[in-house]
Structure formats: C-alpha cells, structure tokens
C-alpha cells in the first residue's frame, strides 16, 4: 500500500472494528460499559436521539472517523521518529489523542458528562485503546515498510 491516505483509512477501519466489537462483546458478557458509538453520537445529536437506529449509525461513523484520525497521528509519529518501536508509538499516539479528546474536549463541550462517574468505562476504554494503538502501530509499520 503506497498511499498514506489508504494506509490510515484501512488501519482506521480495522481500529474502529476492534474498538466497537470489543466493547460490544463486553456488553454481551454483561459488563456495564458505555458504548463508544453512543459517546460519538452524542457529539452530533441530542441525548434522546443517540440510541435511535440513525443515532447508532452516526455514532459508528464517528468512531471510524476518530480511529482514522488516531491512525493518522500514529503514522505521522512513525514518520517523524522512525519505525522502531512502532507498537509503543502506536500506544502512545492513540492514548495521547484519546486523553486530549476525552479529557479535554468532552468536558469542555459537555459531551456525555456521565462518563466521568463511570470508572469502569474509563479503564476499559483505556485498555481497548491501548490494544488498538498497538495493533495500529504494527499495521502502519507493516504497510509502510512494504513500500520501501
């Protein structure tokens, strides 16, 4: 894959699948965790529309967009600092991006304020994002190394 836009798009789609399916499986197992697609839908919709079918679709598209943005950050980080330790750089890139979005912008914009009272959701999100960052870092390294 030579095109960096295609690299981050494919990686972002994979990342969104990992995040959304992981949380969905945890919910099926009975773990009370707030879904990322509902949080993403809350960015665009009023609270009463978030859980509708259209709200869930908008939320899923939102998580794909955030995952593509995360992959872009990782790819830039890899290009600026080199491809050594790509997994660690993926973890750092995703977590830095998620801390800025969830820790800064969500409270400022009053997006899903209830999440601050859900420590389980936050620790699971951190864990899933860390795993996703590692996978994205490895994928982007592989995509980029095959180009050279």
Write a structural description:
With 148 residues, this protein is mainly alpha-helical. The protein has helices at 4-28, 36-44, 53-81, 86-109, 119-145. α1 runs antiparallel to α5 and α2 (36-44) crosses α3 (53-81). It is globular.
List keywords for this structure.
148 residues, mainly alpha
Poorly predicted ranges (pLDDT <50, ≥5 residues)? none
The proportion of residues forming helix, as a percent range, comes to: over 70%
- Count of the separate structural domains: 1
What is the CA-atom radius of gyration, in angstroms?
15 Å
Helix and strand topology:
Blueprint: H1 4-28, H2 36-44, H3 53-81, H4 86-109, H5 119-145
Helix pairs in contact: 1-3, 1-5, 2-3, 3-4, 3-5, 4-5
Brief summary:
The protein has five helices and no strands. With 148 residues, the protein is mainly α. Helix 2 packs across helix 3 and helix 3 (53-81) packs across helix 5.
């Amino acid at each position: 894959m030579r095109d960096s836009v295609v690299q981050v798009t494919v990686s972002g789609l994979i990342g969104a699948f990992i995040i959304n399916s992981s949380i969905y499986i945890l919910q099926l197992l009975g773990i009370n965790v707030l879904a990322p697609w509902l949080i993403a839908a809350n960015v665009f919709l009023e609270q009463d529309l978030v859980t509708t079918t259209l709200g869930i679709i908008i939320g899923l598209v939102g998580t794909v967009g955030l995952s593509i943005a995360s992959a872009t950050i990782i790819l830039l980080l890899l290009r600026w600092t080199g491809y050594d330790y790509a997994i660690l750089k993926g973890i750092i890139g995703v977590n830095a991006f998620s801390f800025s979005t969830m820790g800064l912008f969500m409270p400022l914009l009053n997006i899903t304020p209830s999440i601050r009272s859900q420590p389980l959701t936050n620790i699971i999100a951190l864990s899933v994002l860390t795993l996703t960052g590692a996978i994205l870092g490895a994928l982007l390294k592989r995509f980029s190394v095959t180009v050279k």
